[in-house]
Amino acid sequence: MGWAFGTPMRSFGRSPMMRLLIFLLPGLLASCAPVNRAELAKRALAADPEFVAVLDKRATLESRITTEHKKLALVRETIQQDITQKKKELAEKSSAVRRKITEIKAQMDPDVRRYTTTLGSASEDLRAKQAQRAAIGREIAQLKKALKAAGAAGGASQRAQQETQITERLRDAQRIDQEIAALKEYLKLLKTKLLLIRF
Fold first, then answer.
1. Are 115 and 190 in contact (CB under 8 A)?
2. pLDDT of 18
3. What is the pLDDT of residue 31?
């Protein structure tokens, strides 16, 4: 029985795979220690010299992977440089466009100034008309008060004259009221025009 089991064990121990496993086992079990690839390769090749072909293949593939990483890094750098340049060009273009827009908007400035000046003049006219209307209103009130105070004691001629004055001033007040209404509409129109032409 010993011979039956011993012979295969000795044969298995002499196989390259077994020798490789025996040499690598200590390194594989010491998983907490840093991996020393050179030392592991040395052990592997000592156990199986033909393993060098596999290691060479792996080294070739690693070199290709490194090359691909370098290509990607180069592409990334090129793209980043392009993005930086494009951002710079966009900033310059934006600045130029803003200046151009300011110049274009400025072409409306004469019209804005003209309507603003007209609005100011019309506003002054309105205030003057309103002051005039207020004065006429006070005058009419005084005339009516005087007419009432005179009563029957006053002569017919005097009463007629006072009533005529009141009638004339009422007509003046009505005319000025119409002018004030027209000025208010004109002011509203000017404000609308300014609102429409301003940027």
1. yes
2. 59
3. 47
- The C-alpha atoms of residue 160 and residue 156 are separated, in whole angstroms, by 6
Length of the chain: 199
For residues 20 and 28, what is the distance between their CA atoms, to the nearest angstrom?
Answer: 12
For the whole prediction, is pTM greater than 0.85?
no
| Domain 108-197: CATH class, spelled out | mainly alpha
Reported as a single tens digit per residue, the pLDDT across 148-197 is 887 656 677 778 888 999 999 999 999 999 999 999 999 999 999 999 99
In contact, 189 and 95? CB cutoff 8 Å: no
- Max CA-CA distance within the chain? 167
User: 66 in helix, strand or coil?
Assistant: helix
Report the distance separating Cα 110 and Cα 107, nearest Å: 7
Q: Hey, where are the domains in the chain?
A: 12-71, 108-197
